[in-house]
């Protein structure tokens, strides 16, 4: 192995040691077919990474976009994002299961999805010209003290979003996002994790909703961005524009069984191909257990369906909408939390929790310094 390739491998392994606190979309499932997503922690270190529908981004640390960058193009599809080289075909009315590799229980917040029509192919679109309209937005259910991110975790780190039946056929960018609010009680404390996927929507719909430029979706002082979630929150206003007609705040959440794997369609190339169902160890197909009491667990590959829950999204211009998640009978399997993160003895990884009321884990940081966001949460952040 060449010195260059060895150095790249070492860099990849070092990066992997610091990204466990956050997550990214690993694959999407459409009608039982699983399509690989863009992996920011491994693709940049490959000489010939796969061509996928997920957009390329430079968040190799699984990091976030801060509110001070809401007017910057990084908020559109993540840091220095460029269009994916392929797209996935889906029919209006279909539901897409978006699978994450992991997500920390402490990073509570909403789950939001947008679509933006491409003038031509999405593989060559100018992201700053995309105008996004919201197709789902789930937030907080005060009655059960449940966040949409909790539902994501309980359903094996998967989120189900429905493409509205009335949307006109064409090429679209799906913008999928969660916003971590554990430090949002102070200015510039919220953490946005946008990810984009190219879709080709088929069907007979005629709706072409107007949208909002990605750099105008949010403001740093929006009610759902600058918010203290530890101070007896009675409701929560999901940030961004209102849902379009024909969309719902959240469909009943469940996992999608994978029956085959598919290859995204490259414009001018072969149409998407599918293969036999994945063997054990490939794409996850069922849900993981609900989180344990440890704020930052290390979660193994999901294997079983989790218990049901309820989620409510509150937005301006419409009343709270509650949807029940159907129960399942599968018994959960609990992944053991890691008490001492890698990167140093008793040291927390970058972006991991390092303090706060009732915190009993590591208080030293393997990288960066421990910053107190509020009495309940301190986090390892870059020292710069």
UniProtKB/TrEMBL annotation:
<dbReference type="GO" id="GO:0046872">
    <property type="term" value="F:metal ion binding"/>
</dbReference>
<feature type="compositionally biased region" description="Low complexity">
    <location>
        <begin position="276"/>
        <end position="307"/>
    </location>
</feature>
<comment type="similarity">
    <text>Belongs to the polysaccharide monooxygenase AA9 family.</text>
</comment>
<feature type="region of interest" description="Disordered">
    <location>
        <begin position="262"/>
        <end position="342"/>
    </location>
</feature>
<dbReference type="GO" id="GO:0030245">
    <property type="term" value="P:cellulose catabolic process"/>
</dbReference>
<dbReference type="GO" id="GO:0004497">
    <property type="term" value="F:monooxygenase activity"/>
</dbReference>
<keyword id="KW-0503">Monooxygenase</keyword>
<dbReference type="InterPro" id="IPR000254">
    <property type="entry name" value="CBD"/>
</dbReference>
<keyword id="KW-1015">Disulfide bond</keyword>
<dbReference type="InterPro" id="IPR005103">
    <property type="entry name" value="AA9_LPMO"/>
</dbReference>
<feature type="compositionally biased region" description="Low complexity">
    <location>
        <begin position="319"/>
        <end position="342"/>
    </location>
</feature>
<feature type="signal peptide">
    <location>
        <begin position="1"/>
        <end position="23"/>
    </location>
</feature>
<keyword id="KW-0136">Cellulose degradation</keyword>
<keyword id="KW-0964">Secreted</keyword>
<keyword id="KW-0732">Signal</keyword>
<dbReference type="Pfam" id="PF00734">
    <property type="entry name" value="CBM_1"/>
</dbReference>
<dbReference type="InterPro" id="IPR035971">
    <property type="entry name" value="CBD_sf"/>
</dbReference>
<dbReference type="GO" id="GO:0030248">
    <property type="term" value="F:cellulose binding"/>
</dbReference>
<protein>
    <recommendedName>
        <fullName>lytic cellulose monooxygenase (C4-dehydrogenating)</fullName>
        <ecNumber>1.14.99.56</ecNumber>
    </recommendedName>
</protein>
<keyword id="KW-0186">Copper</keyword>
<keyword id="KW-0119">Carbohydrate metabolism</keyword>
<keyword id="KW-0479">Metal-binding</keyword>
<feature type="domain" description="CBM1">
    <location>
        <begin position="346"/>
        <end position="381"/>
    </location>
</feature>
<keyword id="KW-0560">Oxidoreductase</keyword>
<dbReference type="InterPro" id="IPR049892">
    <property type="entry name" value="AA9"/>
</dbReference>
<dbReference type="Pfam" id="PF03443">
    <property type="entry name" value="AA9"/>
</dbReference>
<keyword id="KW-0624">Polysaccharide degradation</keyword>
<dbReference type="GO" id="GO:0005576">
    <property type="term" value="C:extracellular region"/>
</dbReference>
